[in-house]
Amino acid sequence: MTEKKNYTLPIIMMILLFGMISFVTNLAAPMGVVLKEQFGVSNFLGMLGNAANFIAYAVMGIPGGMLLTKYGYKRTALIAIAVGFLGIFVQYLSGYAGQSSAFGVYLLGAFIAGFSMCLLNIVVNPMLNTLGGGGNKGNQLIQVGGSFNSVMATFTPAFVGILIGEAAKANIKDVFPMMYLAMAVFAVVFFVLWRVSIPEPHAEAAAEPLSKLMSGAMKFRHFVLGAIAIFVYVGVEVGTPGIMNLWLSEIPEVGKTTAGFVAGTYWLLMLAGRLTGASIGSKVSSKAMLGVTSFVGLVLIALAMFLPVTKQVSLPVLMSSPAGALSFGLAKVPINAMFIVLVGLCTSIMWGGIFNLAVEGLGKYLAAASGIFMVLVCGGGILPVIQGKVADLAGFMPSYWVIFLGLAYLLFYALIGSKNVNKDIPV
Question: Of the chain's two ends, which shows fewer C-beta atoms within 10 Å, N or C?
């Protein structure tokens, strides 16, 4: 009789990595406030750190899959963690670089960290599923990891807001505690995974060349439109709270700290939306969920753009007391911010819906299609930069036309573009 191994420790490490993906990714957007103030750059340049993080997906998506095939999940995870540590360390060094080079050093660090996040996204789901023994238990652990991911997304912009406070001029050094924490977690997880023995979810070698499988996937119209939808979706998800954070930080009555908490509330609503989506996912189709949330998002963004910014509301958000304790409180913000925050409920369930619709009927092309999806996550860096440029030229509220058009495309995909019109292709 074989003894069943206890994988509690590596399971905890995988869940921590779920959180680190969110922690490092969501550190980039609020860092735009720091970059704007330290270097006096525009909104466009302030979002370049976020862009560098996501553009790394475009570079690493396909090579990451090849790395996984060659070295396996555990070794790929160790490589990803080491690269993540290096990326954060380079960002840390930018705090000591000269004023003329610090901005470039920070962008390099964000780019390196993006490589790590791409690799971790490739490995953490199957590893956690395998450690749970697959089936319902494995899926349950993935849901736990996803929930922790959302929790970290909620607190990251809030903590950045606390650290930079209401100082006249924020500095990269103000955010050092966040970087210390990230490097410490990466170091601990690396050594734990290195020492423990865990099962390896072996990927089957493809019977056809990857290039042929990728070109085969691209023959499906609903997949091509779905890949574009993923590009648009991630840009909408990141740009919606990211630009709002920059906007609120410039309003003296709100301030940088409260702006961070308001942005964190967006991610908190994403957590609530994901939990709700998981509970009704077996009863409501992906097409219906994506269609409804895209339409509601359009309405919310339209209200945010056209209502006067002079009208204020009291928004319940996480707040920090003078003693440093976190609790819910009411923050006075323009009503536009309230509608932007509520978009988090809509974007929360879009990824799964788009993915399910886009890969339906792909058969043997599914793995290659997943690699293409990972490349197009780079939309989370490109669209916010475009939105930042529009904000520089026309103002913060008009910049949300970028988000509006993105949501309009997602509604089109849900209603029309997701239909598989290529059922004659052998799979």
Answer: N
Domain residue spans of the chain: 1-199, 210-421
Fold of 1-199: Growth Hormone; Chain: A; (1.20.1250)
In 250-285, alpha helices (H):
255-280
- Report the C-alpha gap between 245 and 387 in whole angstroms: 13
Query: 3-class DSSP state for residue 59?
Result: helix
Domain 210-421: CATH superfamily is: MFS general substrate transporter like domains (1.20.1250.20)
CB atoms within 10 A of CB 3: 5
CA distance 242 to 46: 10
- In which residue are the tokens 């089957």 written? 204
The shares of helix, strand and coil residues in the chain, as percent rounded to the nearest 5, are 75, 5, 20
- Strand-pairing partners, residue 320, are 326
Distance between CA atoms of residues 206 and 217, nearest Å: 14
Token reading at 318: 């996480």
Sole residue written with tokens 């996937």: 217
Q: Is 423 helix (H, G, I), strand (E, B) or coil?
A: coil
Cβ contacts of residue 231 below 8 Å, gap of 6+? 376, 377, 378, 379, 382, 383
Nearest partner of 111 among 60, 49, 63, 157, judged by Cα: 49
Interval 306-357: pLDDT, tens:
999 999 999 888 766 555 556 677 889 999 999 999 999 999 888 878 888 8
**Residues contacting 394, CB < 8 A, separation 6+:** none
pLDDT digits (tens, 9 = 90+) for 208-255: 676 787 788 889 999 999 999 999 999 999 999 999 999 998 888 888
Question: Token digits for 382?
Answer: 């490109």
Mean of the pLDDT values across residues 174-187?
90
- What gap in Å lies between CA 261 and CA 206, rounded to an integer? 46
Give the type of residue at 44: F
Contacts of 316 by beta carbon, 8 Å cutoff, 6+ apart? 265, 328, 329, 330, 331
255: left (phi over 0), alpha (psi -120 to 50) or beta: left
Check: CB of residue 240 under 8 Å from CB of residue 343. Answer: yes
**pTM of the predicted structure, to 2 decimals:** 0.82
Q: Do domains 1-199 and 210-421 have the same CATH topology?
A: yes
Neighbours of 135 (CB within 10 A): 9
